[in-house]
Design brief:
By secondary structure, the chain is mostly helical. Helices cover 66% and strands 0% of the residues.
């Protein structure tokens, strides 16, 4: 995602990079988002909680 943003800024193809960012977000599985959120919480030193797939994840 960061790579697509940099391409959009430095190469001047902003619309293409925005579409690629959106597609990346759509194609990444829910499990990957949950694992990424847990990793971020762990890096920040937050309390680990049991992940409930039915509850929304707030980062």
């Amino acid at each position: 995602t960061g790579m697509h943003l940099a391409i959009g800024i430095f190469m001047g193809i902003l619309y293409f990079s925005l579409v690629m960012i959106a597609v990346d977000m759509i194609l990444i599985s829910d499990r990957s988002w949950i694992r990424a959120a847990e990793w971020i919480r762990g890096r920040r030193g937050g309390a680990e909680s049991e992940s409930d797939p039915s509850s929304p994840i707030v980062i």
